[in-house]
Amino acid sequence: MATILQIIGFKNSGKTTLLNALIRACRTENYTVSAIKHDAHDFSIDHAGTDSYSFQENGAEAVIIANSRQHAVMEQTGIDLKTAIQKLPNTDLILVEGYKEGPFPKIILIREKAEIEHLKNTKAVHKIATHNPALKEEAIFIGEEQALNVFAEKLIKEFLQ
């Protein structure tokens, strides 16, 4: 079973930057990794004018677009975190961006001190980090590339070794 780690925070707090650093750190240590991105807004991975888009527009419940290197399944239904995890291939680590209410260990990214208060009831908080140098006393500063990479490497060692 994979280790699961969540990265949460408000918009533009650096969640994706940290998640990408964690993916690179995993790959450097030859661990396999999958990622789940929660999007609170309506999104589309398909585009008007494509065949697959027209299948959905005409009422298909699910559409798969595939070739010999990759595939995507587009279903006309939401998905909870548990089900999303079950759909992933077997990997050493699953990184989850978002799903604040999820039960897994979390790294919280903050932009401002007030966000700590907003997220104080969050469960399973492992660490609080920031890209904002003014918050070095409240959170682990990862606003410089070296600090970000060191933090990611430490987390990978902590969770996978």
UniProtKB/TrEMBL annotation:
It comes from the Bacteria. InterPro entries: MGD_biosynthesis_adapter, MobB_dom, P-loop_NTPase. It holds the Pfam family MobB. Residues 4-128 form the Molybdopterin-guanine dinucleotide biosynthesis protein B (MobB) domain. CDD domains: MobB (cd03116). One of its GO terms (molecular function) is GTP binding. GO terms for biological process: Mo-molybdopterin cofactor biosynthetic process. This is Molybdopterin-guanine dinucleotide biosynthesis protein B. It comes from Listeria swaminathanii.
